[in-house]
TrEMBL record, chain A:
Signal peptide range: 1-22
PROSITE patterns per UniProt: PROKAR_LIPOPROTEIN
Name of the featured protein: Sugar ABC transporter substrate-binding protein
Pfam families named in the record: Peripla_BP_4
Protein family membership: Belongs to the bacterial solute-binding protein 2 family.
Subcellular location(s) per record: Cell envelope
Keyword Transmembrane helix: no
InterPro entries: Bact_Solute-Bind_Prot2, Peripla_BP_I, SBP_2_dom
Residue ranges of domain Periplasmic binding protein in the record: 52-295
Keywords: Signal
Location, primary (coarse class): other
TrEMBL record, chain C:
InterPro entries: ABC_transp_permease (IPR001851)
Species of provenance: Glutamicibacter mishrai
Pfam families: BPD_transp_2 (PF02653)
Role of this protein: Part of the binding-protein-dependent transport system for D-xylose. Probably responsible for the translocation of the substrate across the membrane.
GO MF entry, a single one: transmembrane transporter activity
Keywords tagged on the record: Cell inner membrane, Cell membrane, Membrane, Sugar transport, Transmembrane, Transmembrane helix, Transport
Broad class of where this protein is predominantly found: membrane
Location(s), subcellular: Cell membrane
CDD domains membership: TM_PBP1_transp_AraH_like
Membrane topology: Multi-pass membrane protein
Lineage of the species this protein comes from: Bacteria, Bacillati, Actinomycetota, Actinomycetes, Micrococcales
Protein name, entry field: Xylose transport system permease protein XylH
Length: 331, 294, 354
């Protein structure tokens, strides 16, 4: 190390931009922004209200992007100022609720992954007269916490729906791949599958390292020659399972939960049998819209019951219809 | 006392100067302070090839600051530090090494987990080959290490063993041999015998003489006048950052040296106090009588 | 002056021997190498899984185990060198993803040939290493703290910039861009050996181990690395360039992160911006199992590789044995403990007493 290395570094820094200009890619890359994002429609004429959507999203999960898109579209339509916040830690999520109350929001939408941690702050919100809805998690507890509507999909039901579809296809020994050990929702999905297909086996992989996901799944497929299906609980993970299937020279069918545009393409091509979509866009959209409805006329949708947004099975026929929506990022 | 010291120092310096027009290393009125703490003030010293200069003093006397200045770890704030007649301020140990000043520290001399030959050539490794394929000339370094150590009197068949397995005295000797090999002109030894037993100390003292005989100017720092006296040619006494005496061997005895270091009166007082506490007045009297009889 | 001989302390003669020292056999020399504990552990583990899960021995399984080992091993090479040099880097896990995201987002946003992104990602990775090193030198804080801070900052940057530039938490697909296929061939392809597909990362890993070992054992810089890790003050006192070497080590770790990041990008196309967290400890574990002292100054790159291999075997072996995967983490922790104990015991026996 010494002067020569610095000179080389400076030279590289000078040359690279020049090369870069010469080396543009004619394919792929960022598409130019479409003219006015599907807009042009009328916005609600009600007074602008503030809504806080507070979830337990861990940073970096693509699933929540779709919920957010739904919430943002509803906000745009309903003349709502949207605050989108999240923290996977129950205590801190509760603090975010209290902050929203302090800011005087007109409505709060929460996910109830840890309902006991939310109890205190939700009571404060009710006392302050702020209407609350819940989404995604908390189907069995929302009423007692003063929440008037819930929009979500039951993970166990979703698992059972997947199980039924597998049974239909004559598959008897699926491997259910969980990318985060101890995650209640993921465990519930596999439990649902197992209820319908008793020979289901669970495989834990390290979701924070895609290479380990691939090698562990490959190992499992090499070890377990009896398995006839493998299920990923998230679109990116299912994509990796496809790679593992190829490396292991396996003949298993691949199924999935949740969606992104790549997964939809794979379903259309027939590489993935189906995916169970809980239509997260709807969860975000309905949560914000329900609060606006409540503001508009005191309406409470749902009749005290949870409004289910899924499960919706997306197989080859459905996939072909929704390809463009998946590319848009709403499905 | 002060006048006497100055006169003595000047006499000594005069004695040294005409002999060699350019001393190897001189310090004139050198001082250093850390913030408001004065670590060293007004120190004079001369180092010549083939001579051992001992720097004596109790803890806190400023010995460590003095060698750090000479070895390039710190820079002096006042006074003049010359090497071969020209004034210098050493910016780093690397610069000091290049100037021919090598320091051997009490416990910082070597890296315990590394083999002896790697330690010997640390910072000055021999390589063969060119460009990115330059690699260590391992065999040559091992051979030289073995050779140099045996020249200095240590016979080690296996220079691959971690240097931490050698005894404290042997490690010091390896470090001294290293300094000698790499052409040090001035060798600073920082309390090399402080943690050693009697026999090991003897070994190290013999090495000091070997280095001296090879023409190096040796600066030997210690708080033990009984180690310093046999090997030293001149003695610099430090107390609380100042010089309290600078003598050549002819001018002082080992008892005077010891008394000067601790302060004669303090030592007598201490002996008296210990006597009182210990209550061994009779045995002490016997022992003194016996010693006097010898 | 007569040539005085110090008391003979380690004479290896067959006749006159110092009564305190025994003869040093080849076996004890071998036992003194830093990797020996790890090697013993690796062999034991291999035999264990071979017995418990016969499918473990099939070539396809070995290829899978090697792949799992290589993605830890590539980073373990850099982390081992750094640990021998006396420092930690906790930002390695996310730095890998930062590199992948840099290449992906830059190429995508500016519509460039993917190779440009690859080169720029290299600069980013080296820069991250450089900054880690500089902050360490200037603040004189423990590297644990400095790199913990950069770990947090990089995590935030990964998430924030990916959303800001790409619009979601997953980087956009670049598979249809120019240069992708050629880059994939280099960073994320497979080599067919006797009918088995071995991922290219295995070969990259082995090459890196060889180069790192050569640097460590046969160059000046290697000597400096051992010295700085063993006793930084002693090294500085004899003129070893401590600052430059340490910064260089952090940049070497950055380079390893770039290699793995590029593999991640071209193997999986879309990079999840929250990935990478947690791996930094696996890299350190691999280095420690491989014989690198946590306090520095001792260890080897080969040891780190064996540690990564042990991790790969344990990780995949449990799956091949079809055990309950709930126990995996317990097993890994137990392995680490046993391996470290074996290392210490073996090292103590190999060293003569002082």
């Amino acid at each position: 190390m010494g002067k020569p290395t610095w000179r080389k570094l400076a030279l590289t820094l000078a040359i690279v931009p020049a090369l870069g200009l010469a080396a543009c890619s004619s394919t792929g890359g960022r598409a130019p922004e479409p003219e006015g994002n599907g807009g042009g429609g009328a916005v609600a004429t009600t007074e602008r209200i503030k809504v806080a959507v507070i979830t337990h999203a861990a940073p970096g999960d693509t699933f929540w992007d779709i919920i957010r898109k739904g919430a943002e579209e509803a906000a745009a339509k309903d003349n709502v100022e949207l605050q989108y916040l999240s923290d996977p830690d129950g205590g801190r999520q509760s603090q975010l609720i209290e902050q929203a109350i302090d800011q005087g929001v007109d409505g709060i939408a929460v996910t109830l992954a840890k309902p006991d941690a939310m109890k205190g702050s939700l009571k404060k919100a009710t006392d302050a007269g702020i209407p609350i809805v819940s989404l995604n998690a908390g189907e069995d507890r929302f009423k007692e916490l003063g929440v008037f509507a819930h929009f979500g999909s039951n993970e166990q039901l979703a698992g059972e729906a997947a199980g039924e579809k597998l049974k239909e296809a004559g598959l008897k020994k699926p491997i259910c791949v969980i990318q985060e050990q101890g995650h209640v929702g993921l465990e519930a999905r596999c439990a649902g599958v197992k209820k319908v297909v008793p020979d289901t086996e669970v495989l834990y992989v390290q979701g924070t390292d895609m290479t380990q996901v691939e090698s562990t799944a490959t190992a499992k497929l090499q070890a377990d020659k009896q398995a006839d299906a493998i299920i990923g609980l998230g679109a990116p993970f299912t994509m990796t399972l496809l790679k593992a299937k190829a490396t292991a020279n396996s003949k298993v069918e691949v199924a999935s939960f949740d969606m992104n545009s790549q997964l939809v393409q794979e379903i259309t091509k027939g590489n993935v049998l189906f995916t169970v979509d809980q239509q997260p866009w709807l969860q975000g959209y309905m949560a914000v819209d329900a609060l606006w409805q409540n503001y508009r006329g005191g309406f409470t949708i749902g009749g005290g019951q949870a409004t289910l947004t899924g499960p919706a099975i997306v197989d080859k026929t459905v996939a072909e219809k929704i390809t463009s929506f998946a590319e848009e990022g709403v499905r | 006392m002060k006048t006497r010291k100055n006169k003595k120092t000047e006499e000594l310096l005069e004695k040294l100067e005409p002999k060699t027009s350019d001393n190897l290393l001189t310090l004139k009125g050198v001082g250093k302070h850390y913030g408001s703490i004065i670590a060293l003030r007004g120190v004079d010293m001369v180092v010549d090839p083939g001579k051992v200069t001992c720097v004596l003093g109790d803890n806190g006397a400023g010995k460590s600051t003095l060698i750090k200045i000479i070895a390039g770890l710190h820079q002096h704030d006042e006074g003049d530090f010359t090497l071969h007649g020209s004034s210098i301020k050493l910016k780093s140990p690397r610069v000091a090494l290049d100037a021919g000043i090598a320091a051997v520290y009490q416990d910082l001399a070597v890296v315990p987990l590394m083999p002896i030959w790697r330690n010997f050539f640390l910072g000055s490794e021999l390589t063969t080959g060119v460009g990115p394929f330059k690699k260590l000339d391992v065999q040559k370094m091992k051979d030289i290490t073995k050779q140099e150590l045996s020249d200095m009197g240590i016979d080690l068949r296996d220079v691959e063993q971690p240097i931490g397995q050698l005894s404290g005295g042997e490690r010091q000797c390896v470090a001294i041999a290293r300094a000698v090999y790499f052409g040090a002109k001035v060798l600073i030894l920082d309390e090399p015998t402080a943690a050693l037993g009697v026999k090991q100390s003897g070994v190290v003292l013999r090495y000091i003489l070997q280095a001296r005989d090879r023409g190096l100017g040796v600066i030997f720092i210690t708080h033990n006048p009984h180690h310093a006296y046999p090997v030293g040619d001149s003695f610099l006494l430090l107390k609380r950052g100042r010089s309290i005496g600078y003598y050549s061997k002819a001018e002082i005895t080992v008892e005077e040296l010891t008394a000067q270091m601790a302060g004669g009166a303090e030592l007598a007082e201490l002996a008296h106090e210990l006597e009182q506490l210990g209550g061994h007045a009779e045995e002490l009297a016997e022992a003194e009588a016996g010693a006097a009889a010898k | 002056m007569s040539s005085l001989t110090a008391s003979p302390s380690h004479k290896k003669t067959t006749t006159a021997q110092d009564e305190r020292v025994g003869k040093k056999s080849t076996l004890s020399i071998l036992l003194g190498r830093p990797e020996i504990g790890a090697l013993v552990g690796a062999v034991a583990l291999f035999i264990f899984f071979a017995i418990v899960a016969p499918v473990f021995l099939s070539p396809a399984s070995l290829a899978t185990v090697l792949y799992g080992a290589s993605t830890i091993g590539i980073m373990a090479v850099g982390v081992s060198l750094l640990m021998i040099g006396g420092e930690f880097d906790l930002s390695t896990g996310v730095a890998v993803i930062s590199s992948a995201l840099s290449a992906s987002l830059i190429s995508w946003y500016f519509g460039l040939n993917v190779w440009v992104g690859v080169v720029l990602a290299l600069i980013v990775s080296l820069l991250i290493g450089f900054i880690n090193g500089i902050i360490l030198i200037k603040t004189k804080l423990p590297s644990f703290i400095v790199t913990l801070a950069s770990f947090l900052m990089l995590t935030g940057l990964n998430l924030g910039l990916t959303r800001a530039i790409g619009g979601s938490v997953s980087s956009p697909s670049i598979a249809d861009m120019e240069g992708f296929q050629s880059a994939k061939a280099i960073f994320a392809s497979s080599v067919n050996i006797a009918g088995i597909d071995v991922k290219v990362t295995v070969f990259i890993w082995l090459a890196m181990v060889i180069i790192a070992s050569w640097i460590l054992l046969r160059t000046k810089i290697g000597n400096w690395i051992f010295a700085i890790g063993g006793d930084e003050k002693a090294a500085r006192a004899v003129g070893v360039p401590v600052v430059r070497t340490k910064i260089g080590l952090f940049m070497a770790v950055g380079f390893c992160g770039w290699v793995l990041g590029m593999h991640n990008l071209f193997a999986f196309d879309a990079v999840q911006s929250g990935e990478g967290i947690g791996n930094e400890f696996l890299y350190i574990i691999a280095a420690v199992i491989g014989g690198c002292l946590l306090t520095g100054g001792y260890g080897s790159a080969i040891g780190g590789a064996i540690g990564a291999f042990i991790f790969g075997m344990a990780n995949k072996g449990i799956v091949y044995a079809e055990w309950n995967p709930d126990w995996f983490k317990f097993f890994l922790g137990l392995m680490l403990l046993l391996a470290t104990v074996v290392n210490i015991v073996v090292k103590k026996r190999a060293e003569s007493s002082k």
